[in-house]
Amino acid sequence: MTTREYIDKAMILSYEDPDYPDRAKMVSTGQSFTAFFYWLTKLLKPEMIFEWGPGQSTHAFLMGDPNVQIISYDDDDQWTQLYKKQLKEYDTKYMDRIEFYTVTGTEDYNNSILPDNSTDIVLVDGVRRNDCFASAERIVKPGGVVVVHDTNSSVLWSKPETELTYYGEHEDPIQGETTSIYIKEEL
Description:
The chain has helices at 3-16, 32-44, 56-64, 77-90, 106-110, 129-139, and strands spanning 48-52, 69-74, 98-102, 119-124, 140-149, 165-172, 177-183. Strands 3-2-1-4-5-7-6 form a seven-stranded mixed beta sheet, with helices on both faces. Helix content is 35%, strand content 25%. The relative contact order is 0.15. It is globular, with a radius of gyration of 15 Å. The two termini are 16 Å apart. By secondary structure, the chain is of the alpha/beta class. The protein has a single domain, classed as Vaccinia Virus protein VP39 (Rossmann fold). It has six helices and seven strands.
C-alpha cells in the first residue's frame, strides 16, 4: 500500500473505531484524532516519530506499534515532567521507547536534533507551528507523513508554502479540532 492508502485507511478507522484497543487505559482520554494517530502508526509501522508537544498523541503512537521510537520536544518542562510521570505510572514499558527534551530557545525548539530524511512521522503540536513545520519538511523521510494539529486556529497556524503534498484534513467532531496532513512524496 502507498502512504496515501494507509492514511485513507487510518482516517476511516479513526471514525469507525475511535475506541481502539486500550484507549480507555490511556493517560489522557482521546478523541478521534488520537484514534487517527493510533491507526496511522499501526498501519504505517514507522521506526521513528518526532513530535513537538507530547500528550494524547504520544500515547496513541506508542500503543499503535510496540517497536516505534519517539523523540518528543516541548518548551514547558513542568508539562514534560508531568506527562513523563503519568506515562510511567500507566506502563513503564513505554519509557524505553521515548526520549523527552525540554527546549526553550526559539532556535533550539524549531530545529530538531534529527538529520534530514530521518523520521517516518512528524507531529507538530507545539508552539511556533509554522517554524516547526519548516524543520518537519527537512527531517521527514520520503514516503513519510507530517501532521499538524489545531490548524483551524489562525493564532497557532497559517498554511505555509511547502514542497510537501497536502493530503487533507482530519476533523474531530467532538472537539472541533482540525488536523492537517502532508506527505513527503517518494523520489
